Amino acid sequence: MKARRRLLPRPPKADGSNRRARAAVLGLIAACLTTMGTVSGHAAEKCTPVAGRIASVEGSVEVSNDAGSIWRPAVLNELVCVGALVRVGPNSRALVALANESVLRLKERTTLRMMAPLQNETTFVALVRGVVQFFSRQPRGLQVSTPYVNASVQGTEFLVQVDSERTAVSVFEGVVAMTNEQGEVKLARGESGQAEPAQAPARTILARPRDAVQWAIHYPDVLDGLADRSGRSAGSLPPAVQEAIALFHRGDISGALARLTPAAGETVAADDAALRAVYRAAILLSVGRVTEARTALDAARAGAPADDGRADALAAIISVSQNDRAAALTEARRATEAGP
Questions:
Q1: Which long-range contacts (CB under 8 A, 24 or more apart) does 218-221 make?
Q2: According to DSSP H, which parts of 192-324 are helical?
Q3: What is the arithmetic mean of pLDDT over 25-37?
Q4: pLDDT band for position 228 (50/70/90)?
Q5: How many CB atoms lie under 10 A from the CB of residue 299?
Q6: Least enclosed by CB within 10 Å: which of 35, 111, 115, 308?
Q7: Taking a C-beta distance cutoff of 8 angstroms, is the pair 80, 113 a contact?
């Protein structure tokens, strides 16, 4: 299943405006939490107490209520029970709205367990692996358990990453205390830290910590509009592109990307290869894989010098969303000159 926002993100403004914009978006998400009461009584009976709600599904997202023995596809707006596991597959993302009006963005290949609240009403989640970005309109008590450190949070925005070697935390707003048996370190706004097995947590220096959350940006769904821009009806597109679009709309993002990748020994005309690269970039953007999308756009421009501006148009969307206005203007001008 998939749920996708179709609004073009506005370029970020000053820091204060960014916070207000995030607060407005989170207000809408929090308001959606009030719809929990409208879920069928049958669903409510199966989920007591409620830990949160699946607020966005992009690609392969699954839920397990029995410690991971049985997994089923997540359903948009379904309630998530205390003790449930949420798993995000490759080329996928999810958003979980917590009962305390906070939201968690889950990156691909992430597994999260929803825990019972602590005695002081602090929300408690366990990050088994992967990356989670935390948002709140105002400071909320949250404790995140990971294999190498616990993070006690009183803040509005931070990031936690877990892999086989370490747990890393970056704080964008608020304060996070990283604690394990070896020690503790408190991180404030703009600071980062990490903990490795059997070692006390320590501060780390990241030149551009915001780069770690580029995957969480939502880009507009432009896939269906690409054919219109090229002047070709969807039915006249190469079969591989048509099949990839169909897979994408069914929520099979990995399948769509694979269909756009030439098979071993397959010969693809230069124009068709460039077209595949453009569509591949659009699909990659839908799940926040910006670096790979830019690589695909570079391949499209190199393979078809007479491109009608689709690659530059997509590049401009990336630059607008990342607040690189100068680059966005340059790319948009190139796009309109190539395809008036």
A1: 218/5, 218/9, 218/288, 219/9, 219/285, 219/286, 219/288, 219/317, 219/318, 219/321, 220/5, 220/6, 220/7, 220/8, 220/9, 220/317, 221/4, 221/5, 221/6, 221/286
A2: 223-230, 239-249, 253-259, 270-286, 290-303, 310-321
A3: 46
A4: low
A5: 18
A6: 35
A7: no
Candidates 297, 291, 293, 299; CA nearest to 268 is 299
Structural tokens at position 155? 């803040």
What's the pLDDT score for residue 23? Answer: 52
Confidence label for 32 from pLDDT (cuts 50, 70 and 90): very low
Which candidate, 88, 100, 79, 174, places its Cα nearest to that of 131?
88
What average pLDDT does range 41-69 have in this prediction? 81
Is there a contact between 232 and 271 (Cβ–Cβ < 8 Å)? no
Dihedral of the CA atoms 302, 306, 310, 313 (nearest 10)? 80
Q: How much is the average pLDDT of 24-33?
A: 48
